[in-house]
């Protein structure tokens, strides 16, 4: 690929004068080339796919779709494009939202020429570097590596967060087996332990924690696919990649929400599916994962306290404008003798139960955990393993549906 020295910039603002002013500011920098302008969030998404700029200068307030939603959609589609937000609001909350959406920089309006050009230089250099890395990772995808599935690099992997607001509902059991069921020759999967304090994903898979999220968190701004693959533990029996939790309890707060969020977004460049096992308590890292994922696999059991907690969580996601379509609702440990039926739960919460996983003989499930051999691998024909195959299929379908229905535009 020929080295691209100019930084290609797309300007997005609904006001023609602002677009023109920015263009004028940039015309004296011969390293910067304005390759397009867009008047709305939707147009920005379409143009970004078409002309693939290095940097997008993005306004926040626009009539059809705000700049934060457009940023998220662009980053999801083409993760190497870097976005610099320009806004009159220098509000912390906006900055946080912009950052979670994947923006690289945040400048207040009107920017000085120096601030603007240096932000573009930084973002542009990063975009070109990331683009090159992705191209390189694609080029080395061959059977030579000892992780054949992980070599199937795709530009925008999907993040699935497995969450239950009540402890012990089966989130880790589901995350582990779902990750295994999603893994195929043509799709690579990483299972990320999102429980910084009591992470037990490695135990479920009987793997020693040689490396952990702590090896990635401090260098989140400087990751490349090779570093990620070095740090991820490869599950011997299946080839699944695992990013383990910190090895000791007192290390939990060494990973900030910002670092965790950036790491998850970077993993999109390396794996087709990123499955995150979450703690029930919503820590900073957990919140960032909820904010930045494609799908929340929300787990409940058939008891009133669990359902009450689901209700509180849905109130939070509604307030954060997370569309209900992004929630895949799972009833785990289902016992048909109980009076709280899936239909009753669906009606009560106005959220359809998408999948029911039966209550299995607890001894079978616990033994498999204690042995560190997930049921999906150990007993493929067992009813619960079949549920995980079905679950993986339904989750793939839901993700495809979200992609066509919620993006771009009505996100
Ligand atoms: N479908 C099921 N049938 C029977 N037992 C199950 C089922 N799913 C999970 N379990 C059991 O429930 C217990 C809790 O499961 P798990 O550790 O996966 O839950 P969790 O939500 O991750 O809990 P924590 O809050 O500790 O993170 C385990 O002992 C597991 O064996
Ligand atoms: Mg757990």
Q: What would you say this structure looks like, in words?
A:
- The protein has 2 domains: 7-138, Rossmann fold (3-Layer(aba) Sandwich); 149-406, P-loop containing nucleotide triphosphate hydrolases (Rossmann fold, 3-Layer(aba) Sandwich).
- Strand 1 (7-12), helix 1 and strand 2 (32-38) form a beta-alpha-beta unit.
- Strands 8-9-7-10-6-11-12-13 form an 8-stranded mixed beta sheet, with helices on both faces.
- The chain contains 15 helices and 13 strands.
- The two termini are 34 Å apart.
- It is an alpha/beta fold and 411 residues long.
- Mean pLDDT is 89; it is low at 140-154.
- The structure holds adenosine-5'-triphosphate and magnesium ion.
- The site of adenosine-5'-triphosphate has 19 residues, from helix 6, strand 12 and helix 13.
Write the layout of secondary structure elements.
Blueprint: E1 7-12, H1 16-26, E2 32-38, H2 41-51, E3 55-59, H3 67-77, E4 82-87, H4 92-101, E5 105-108, H5 113-139, E6 158-163, H6 171-182, E7 189-193, H7 201-204, H8 225-231, E8 233-234, E9 241-243, H9 257-267, E10 273-277, H10 284-292, E11 295-300, H11 304-319, E12 327-334, H12 342-349, E13 355-358, H13 362-371, H14 375-378, H15 383-406
Parallel strand pairs: 1-2, 1-3, 3-4, 4-5, 6-10, 6-11, 7-9, 7-10, 11-12, 12-13
Antiparallel strand pairs: 8-9
Helix pairs in contact: 2-3, 3-4, 6-15, 9-10
The structure holds adenosine-5'-triphosphate and magnesium ion (MG).
């Amino acid at each position: 690929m020929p080295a691209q020295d100019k930084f290609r910039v797309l300007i997005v603002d609904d006001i023609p004068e602002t677009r023109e002013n920015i263009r004028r500011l940039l015309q004296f920098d011969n390293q910067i080339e304005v390759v397009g302008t867009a008047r709305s969030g939707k147009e920005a998404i379409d143009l970004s796919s078409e002309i693939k700029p290095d940097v997008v200068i993005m306004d926040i307030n626009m009539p059809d779709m705000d700049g934060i939603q457009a940023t998220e959609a662009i980053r999801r589609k083409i993760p190497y494009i870097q976005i610099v937000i320009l806004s009159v609001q220098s509000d912390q909350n906006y900055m946080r939202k912009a950052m979670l959406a994947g923006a690289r920089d945040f400048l207040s309006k009107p920017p000085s020429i120096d601030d603007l050009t240096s932000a573009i230089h930084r973002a542009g250099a990063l975009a070109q570097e990331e683009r090159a890395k992705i191209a390189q990772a694609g080029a080395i995808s061959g059977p030579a590596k000892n992780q054949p599935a992980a070599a199937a690099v795709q530009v925008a992997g999907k993040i699935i967060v497995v969450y239950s607001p009540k402890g012990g509902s089966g989130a880790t059991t589901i995350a582990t087996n779902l990750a295994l069921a999603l893994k195929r020759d043509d799709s690579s999967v990483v299972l990320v332990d999102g429980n910084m304090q009591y992470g037990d994903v490695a135990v479920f898979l009987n793997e020693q924690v040689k490396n952990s999220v702590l090896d990635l968190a401090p260098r989140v701004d400087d990751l490349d696919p090779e570093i990620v693959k070095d740090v991820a533990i490869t599950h011997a029996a299946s080839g699944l990649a695992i990013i383990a939790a910190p090895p000791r309890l007192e290390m939990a707060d060494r990973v900030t929400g910002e670092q965790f969020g950036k790491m998850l977004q970077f993993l999109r460049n390396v794996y087709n599916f990123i499955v995150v096992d979450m703690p029930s308590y919503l820590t900073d890292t957990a919140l960032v994962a909820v904010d930045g994922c494609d799908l929340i696999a929300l787990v409940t059991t058939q008891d009133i306290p669990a359902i009450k907690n689901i209700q509180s969580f849905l109130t939070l996601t509604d307030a954060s404008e997370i569309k209900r379509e992004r929630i895949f609702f799972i009833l785990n440990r289902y016992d048909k003798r109980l009076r709280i039926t899936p239909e009753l739960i669906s009606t009560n919460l106005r959220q359809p139960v998408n999948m029911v996983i039966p209550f299995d003989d607890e001894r079978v499930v616990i033994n498999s955990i204690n042995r560190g051999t997930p049921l999906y691998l150990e007993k493929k024909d067992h009813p619960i393993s079949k549920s995980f195959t079905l679950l993986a299929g339904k989750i793939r379908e839901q993700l495809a549906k979200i992609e066509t229905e919620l993006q771009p535009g009505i996100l």
